[in-house]
């Protein structure tokens, strides 16, 4: 999507907003104030400066609408002439406040943890300090005069603006599309300009416009106290000071500059509301990378991908949170080139967190340890994945930036990693949208995510992953919340993508029926561990772990008798990190014995391509236990 298209769309939304009653009012007020500021000094400057000793301190009359001052000068003309200086100084102070607030508000989300905390703490202290005292302190520091007042009022606005921006960017910076941009290697400046600022535009613009009204009042207050504009210059605050002593004699002379301050402040508020509605997006902490862990020597992989063809290997993968709680407790897996592997389990079993760990997306304060190798590279030493790994999240709206058009978001991948021009990247984005069977891809590329249906958004996220040349696609619950027909379309699309690109697939789901349609091998997770690995062809009748059997029994099929009672698992899954010694499934397992509560079973061989972590698996001879793999090529009985 070109800049011209974006500008045209913005002009359209702005024009539509200006046709509303609030837009017409704001536009009229802005035009009137602007005309007064531009032409007032030209037309009435001489009259405002003319001294008439015969008309000193006169009241309101036909010749002098608001009366005259102590030198016989026309007060109405002076109020009009003062508009230009008042607005100029107010806008300068607003620019200082908004610029400083954006800088201090955004930097904690893109800087390191310590420096970000320091900036946040400083802003918090300044916000806690009474605003009026802070303003007077700054005015004393910068001295009397227009320049000092501009800096004092502008810097006094920085802390509240920075606090607002920090709160807004905290939620935006934790979004999936920001995490994806970090993985893609998008620089800090582009991350801020492209992904953070557009999504906090509406509340920021509205706050800045309303703050401009407050700055106008504050600046007028300083001039009223004699700390702002100095003679022979004058603004509305200084005029109010000059006429305050006559408020009981000629109240119009004192109220005129005050009314100008109030009405112009309202104008700023209306203008901010119009700009926010026309160009903003309502959107509400940045993930801080855990310190790199020294790589450990990988143990042999058990995946069917094979030693030479595995595109992804993880060994003893653990995700730890404060307090020592481990939500993932030592997962080892491998995915071969072009292989489709399913990762299943109940909610809370650690599936999605394992996927985030594989993509280096675990949010702070989670800490990932273990060995991770992707395409032959150690991800613990160099977490940059480029376009070799594509991630399809459960909620596509969290993966797509609501402030950008879909085509623009896809094109950014090609621009950053493939070095393509803006036009080439846009053409590739349209091509990829067509490849995932989105109708009218040229038109759809110019639309925003909210204009897509749920299934089309999921297709767009898949298309984003295909902008490069992915070797692995991690799909985290890609069919959740979609109807059956759309689910089938998404699953067929994933199968086509695998066939066309040769990419491997790691499909995460709690739905065994979905996994059975797409995958060749199934990994079953429970309590942060893989408890069984088996070919998908053995899932229905050859599962050995009681937990896997219960999952299979809980899924009805077309041939299931309507009167058949489906399998249920008593009890509740363990809390993350809440498992003690022994098998984590033992409290819910009908086959559990004393040993199950004391010793944790290892993942051990149970036939060709089949492993199970159970002391008493289903289908084993009475009294037998599986064999433990203790070294490559050697097996011993447990």
Please give a handful of descriptors for the protein shown:
MetI-like fold, disordered N terminus, four-stranded antiparallel beta sheet, disordered C terminus, 3 domains, alpha/beta, Rossmann fold
What secondary-structure arrangement, pairings included, does this model have?
Elements: H1 3-18, H2 21-49, H3 75-110, H4 113-128, H5 131-142, H6 146-173, H7 176-183, H8 188-196, H9 201-225, H10 236-243, H11 251-279, E1 310-321, E2 325-336, E3 340-344, H12 351-358, E4 367-374, E5 377-378, E6 389-392, H13 396-399, H14 406-417, H15 422-435, H16 441-445, H17 454-465, E7 472-476, H18 484-501, E8 504-509, H19 512-518, E9 521-526, E10 529-535, H20 539-542, H21 546-553, H22 594-598, E11 604-605, E12 611-612, E13 627-631, E14 634-637
Parallel strand pairs: 3-8, 3-9, 6-7, 7-8
Antiparallel strand pairs: 1-2, 1-4, 4-5, 9-10, 10-12, 11-12, 13-14
Helix pairs in contact: 1-11, 2-3, 2-11, 3-4, 3-6, 3-9, 4-6, 5-6, 6-9, 9-10, 9-11, 10-11, 14-15, 15-17, 17-18
Tally the structural domains.
Answer: 3
Question: Which architecture of the largest domain would the CATH scheme give at its second level?
Answer: Orthogonal Bundle
Unreliable stretches = 1-8, 280-308, 622-638
How much of the residues is beta strand, in percent? 5-15%
Would you report the number of β strands?
14
Shape descriptor: elongated
How many DSSP H or I helices? 22
N/C terminus separation: 62 Å
Helix share of residues?
40-55%
